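Margin note from the TA: students keep mixing up input and output lines. Inputs are the sequences; the output is the structure of the whole complex. Example:
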Amino acid sequence: QVQLQESGPGLVKPSETLSLTCAVSGYSISSGYYWGWIRQPPGKGLEWIGSIYHSGSTYYNPSLKSRVTISVDTSKNQFSLKLSSVTAADTAVYYCARQGMVRGVIMNAWFDPWGQGTLVTVSS
Amino acid sequence: QSALTQPASVSGSPGQSITISCTGTSSDVGSYNLVSWYQQHPGKAPKLMIYEGSKRPSGVSNRFSGSKSGNTASLTISGLQAEDEADYYCCSYAGSSTYVVFGGGTKLTVL
């Protein structure tokens, strides 16, 4: 059974960098799939942040691309998110999830399973 | 403003069927059969209900079904039950520059 768990600071100051890690158990990241980050501001909808292929190729939401970095550490079976120059608008629950593929290579648009999510508040 | 358009709310009585629409464009929903649907209860992570337009993951009730016509995808829930009351989100692949877009979400109320 694949499980994902987000971890990282729950409070980040404006203009600083948000850093989160997603630990994966029950499946080796290096074996395949894409691995994604999705966020949800309080009371609002879901927003895809970006994804990383098991090989290390990255794909970002164009609206966040200039501030986002996603990386993978296969030795620890985890992947990470960094979001720079944060503002209050970046306050959200951040989820990590496994993302599907089409024909074993092309990115799909399904996410399963998801981590439980972690609330990150941007405030001084 | 979300890339995919969903109604803010829908409602139905137990036993009835409801349909939630998800309207995109020819660059996303219309071009790829890669629409997924998620159910989210308050305070919980989203749960995958439908993928690739109409496929159900193992363990998801066959009361949930998905379809697509043109630029609009739909989620139908038949035989409504109280536990179906939740927020529902659609998601689509949107090509090699935008990649993934979500709908704004629909709140389902079971009367």
